[in-house]
Specification:
Blueprint lengths: L3 E6 L2 E8 L7 E2 L4 H5 L19 E4 L4 E4 L2 E2 H7 L2 H10 L5 H12 L8 H6 L7 H11 L13 H27 L12 H10 L10 H13 L7 H10 L5 H12 L7 H12 L5 H9 L18 H16 L6 H15 L1 H5 L7 H11 L6 H21 L28
Antiparallel strand pairs: 1-2, 2-3, 4-5, 5-6
Helix pairs in contact: 2-9, 3-18, 6-7, 6-11, 7-8, 7-18, 8-9, 9-14, 9-18, 10-11, 10-18, 11-18, 12-17, 14-17
The chain binds carboxymethyl coenzyme *A.
Length: 426
């Protein structure tokens, strides 16, 4: 037996194996702890718990490193495309030219939605938040594609993965168009993934829509930056939902629901709202004081894993400048507030001591707004991009022989057993 950790409790001593991955902290394998020592571990929020083995994404939060299948995020953002990153996450390797061509064809030819699907949107209130539409509409995919919901069949798992990656932009664009009260725009097979998405969002029947290569590249890079992030809350939700054998469309809908929260994907919307609320550079010190007095949090700051600059935030900041320059908004007052706020926070002991740095959401709101999206769409774009991460992690889980239904335990602190009391005696 290799290295072990010993746990002694109530006269029982258990030797627990230590597992080592390619990188990252060693892991104490506690699987036999309950059976041998009749004791649980307690870790709300999973701050010290590895919930699975994975070969997809690695984060070193202290060094600010993010790797997908071993490739650094900044290299992927600079040199790759979102679809190529999708292939990489799903299949484990970068595709050769032929593999990429086939993959691109598969995704492109799955972008259309079943015609009846469009009637679904009309059921939502006109002012429905696009994320509310996403949660419902993506779950509804399971009622349209019965031929790819058998999770035991590897072929069906691939088809449902391709369908989800391909149809998310079409659904997201429809959620946006419905929110704006404009007619739906159908996908076109001669356009790239991101070009097609921007066209479905921004073209109107009354005029021709011309792609802008700088903005298309920025959109693609934003998708790359959000593609996967290891065992975050929404990914863990997808894995947990999938562990019961639920179909992939339902599992992704569960992931979208979790992503919506302001501590997770909802932070990009909240970060932009916060900058707007601050209003001007002069108001920053008062706002920062409010954060220190714990009246509110600095949105787009802090991360459970990164205790150094989020590597995605660096690329996002650069993309933000490029987009603002392209659309002629380099003097965007919100950008000025963000830059100043970042400078003040990074030098303030409150933030330094707690290792709070800007995360990916700090600059994404300003960038997405410059691309033409309202704040309500920001988390939808995150969901669109994260779908490939969710589905890759879901597939890895289903294909893992050690996979079991997720079933945590608890410390019960409620009432001890007692007898029922009739209503007239209470
Ligand atoms: N502003 C002010 N203080 C903060 C913040 C913040 N954004 N984040 C953490 N802290 C403080 C917190 O009050 C605590 O201080 P103390 O030790 O004195 O009580 C300390 O830092 C540790 O905080 P925590 O809540 O234990 O940290 P966590 O790992 O549970 O939370 C987080 C991580 C992302 C939920 C949190 O940093 C946060 O709420 N950030 C703002 C929301 C946000 O930007 N979320 C997007 C995350 S990146 C995109 C994604 O993956 O979804």
């Amino acid at each position: 037996m290799g290295e072990t950790a010993k746990v002694s409790f109530g006269g029982t001593s258990v030797e627990l194996p230590i597992l080592k991955g390619t990188d990252g902290p060693a892991v104490v394998d506690i699987r036999k702890l309950y059976a041998e020592a009749d004791v649980f571990t307690y870790d709300p929020g999973f701050t010290s718990t590895a919930s699975c083995e994975s070969k997809i994404t690695f984060i070193d939060g202290d060094k600010g490193v993010l790797l997908h299948r071993g490739y650094p995020i900044d290299q992927l953002a600079e040199k790759s495309s979102f679809l190529e990153v999708c292939y990489l996450l799903l299949n484990g390797e970068l595709p050769n030219a032929k593999e990429f061509e086939t993959f691109q064809h598969n995704i492109t030819y799955h972008t259309m939605l079943h015609d009846q699907f469009d009637r679904f949107f009309a059921g939502f209130r006109r002012d429905a938040h696009p994320m509310a539409i996403m949660v419902g509409a993506v779950g509804a995919l399971s009622s349209f594609y019965h031929d790819s919901t058998n999770v035991e069949d590897p072929e069906q798992r691939i088809i449902s993965s391709h369908r989800l990656i391909a149809k998310m932009p079409t659904i997201a664009a429809r959620a946006f168009k419905y929110f704006k009260g404009q007619p739906f725009v159908h996908p076109r097979n001669d356009l790239s993934f991101s070009e097609n998405f921007l066209r479905m969002c921004f073209s109107v029947p009354a005029e021709d829509w011309k792609p802008n290569p700088v903005l298309t590249r920025a959109m693609d890079r934003i998708f790359i930056l959000h593609a996967d992030h290891e065992q975050n809350a929404s990914t863990s939700t997808v894995r947990l939902a999938g562990s019961s054998g639920a179909n992939p469309f339902a599992c992704i809908a569960a992931g979208i629901a979790c992503l919506w929260g302001p501590s997770h994907g909802g932070a990009n919307e909240e970060a932009l709202n916060m900058l707007a609320e601050i209003g001007s550079v002069e108001n920053i010190p008062e706002y920062v004081q409010g954060v220190k007095d714990r009246r509110y949090r600095l949105m787009g700051f802090g991360h459970r894993v990164y205790k150094n600059y989020d590597p995605r935030a660096k690329v996002m900041q650069q993309t933000c400048h490029e987009v603002l320059a392209e659309v002629g908004h380099s003097d965007d007052p919100l950008l000025k507030i963000a830059i100043e706020l970042e400078k003040i926070a990074l030098n303030d002991p409150y933030f330094v001591e707690r290792k709070l740095y800007p995360n990916v959401d700090f600059y994404s709101g300003i960038t997405l707004r410059a691309l033409g999206f309202p704040p309500e769409m920001f988390t939808v774009l995150f969901a669109l991009a994260r779908t490939v991460g969710w589905i890759s992690q879901w597939k890895e889980m289903i294909e893992d022989p050690a996979q079991k239904i997720g079933r945590p335990r608890q410390i019960y602190t409620g009432a001890a057993q007692r007898d029922y009391v009739a209503v007239d005696k209470r």
